[in-house]
Amino acid sequence: MMQHHGKTSPMADQPQMAMNQPEQVIVRAEPAATDPIVLRLSTAKGKDPILRATENLQLDASVSHPAHLYCFYQGHAQALVRIHPNRFHTDSHTDPADMVRLPDKHFNIRMEKPNVTEKVLCLATHRDAAPALPSRIYARDLAPIPGVSLHDVLNEFKKIDSLLAYDVVTVKTIP
After folding, report:
1. Class of CATH domain 39-174
2. Interval 31-73: pLDDT, tens
């Protein structure tokens, strides 16, 4: 949408001189469409790894455009835990040049039970979603979030940024 606004001169009430001044036109362009974010999650053992019940899970996350990154882990007992950002890495903002290692050096995600499936959901948004998220989803980090599923998290984030990107890594454990 274009808008233009005429600007009147403080001399408007004065008699006009022989030379007419052109009206100043200010053009405001529509905001550009936001580029979609591409989010990639990977592990050293592929997209959906198979790990032994004693191994630690290690993921790398990257984005195609500056974004805010949020990650949630769902263990074998279906308990959901926010793993990024967290008390050790509080900033959700990430740039395309950054590779975010999950978990970082402050904690680990150890596969404990064989023959189960565990998941990590990461979401990338154009703006900081934390202030708009319900406290039941965002209040706690690195601790179980009772009564919340990965589906609940995804739905809440979609309400905040319909152009968000998300990716899931599914981990299967073996003895």
Report:
1. mainly beta
2. 334 789 999 999 999 999 999 999 999 999 999 999 999 999 9
User: What is the maximal distance between C-alpha atoms in the chain?
Assistant: 93
Which is nearest to 84 in space by CA: 96, 99, 97, 76?
Answer: 99
* HEC-encoded secondary structure of 114-147: CCCEEEEEEEEECCCCHHHCCHHHHCCCCCEECC
CB atoms within 10 A of CB 5: 10
pTM here?
A: 0.80
Residues with Cβ within 8 Å of residue 70, at least 6 apart in sequence? 82, 84, 85, 92, 122, 123, 124, 125, 129, 130, 157
Residue ranges per domain, the chain?
39-174
Please give the single-letter amino acid code of residue 113: K
Does the structure show a pLDDT above 70 at 5? no
